[in-house]
């Protein structure tokens, strides 16, 4: 999974959970979903985190979710590649994690030079 957009922009990406092999949609409810961004996955502190219950991830029904970025989420982060994961937590000792990367691309128009 790779997510790429210009640093400091609004961005939304949808995803649907499917069973490996059959492609059947997984439409069960999760107690929590975490989206975590770190410069390198071994870092202790994250740069950005969104959750289903805390905001930034919405459940659209039938196994479809949307991850929503606001400009302020990434405006102060350096350009470049970050390690990310999406972790689905059901609360009954079930956790499933999908790893990937976030690439924040260059921007020329900054909030400080508009106008």
How does this structure look, described?
With 115 residues, the protein is mainly beta. It has one domain: Sandwich (Immunoglobulin-like). The chain has one helix spanning 71-74; strands at 2-6, 11-16, 32-38, 48-51, 57-61, 64-69, 80-89, 95-105. The strands form 2 sheets. Strands 1-8-7-3-4 form a 5-stranded mixed β-sheet, with no helix packed on it. A 3-stranded antiparallel β-sheet has the order 2-6-5.
List the helices and strands and how they pair.
Blueprint: E1 2-6, E2 11-16, E3 32-38, E4 48-51, E5 57-61, E6 64-69, H1 71-74, E7 80-89, E8 95-105
Parallel strand pairs: 1-8
Antiparallel strand pairs: 2-6, 3-4, 3-7, 5-6, 7-8
Query: Which second-level CATH architecture applies?
Result: Sandwich
Average pLDDT, all residues:
90
Rg calculated over all Cα atoms: 15 Å
Order of helices and strands: EEEEEEHEE
The separation of the N and C termini measures 36 Å
Strand order of the largest sheet: 1-8-7-3-4
Total of helices: 1
Give a short synopsis of this structure.
This protein is mostly beta strands.
Which properties best describe this structure?
115 residues; Immunoglobulin-like; mainly beta; elongated
């Amino acid at each position: 999974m790779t997510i790429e957009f210009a640093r400091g922009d609004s961005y939304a990406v949808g995803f649907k959970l499917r069973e490996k092999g059959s492609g059947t949609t997984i439409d069960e409810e999760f107690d929590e979903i975490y989206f975590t961004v770190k410069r390198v996955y071994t870092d202790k502190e994250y740069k950005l985190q969104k959750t289903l219950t805390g905001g930034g991830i919405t459940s659209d029904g039938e196994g479809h979710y949307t991850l929503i970025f606001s400009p302020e989420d990434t405006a102060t982060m350096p350009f470049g590649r970050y390690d990310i994961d999406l972790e689905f937590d059901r609360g009954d000792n079930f956790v499933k994690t999908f790893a990937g990367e976030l690439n924040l691309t260059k921007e020329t128009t900054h909030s400080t030079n508009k106008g």
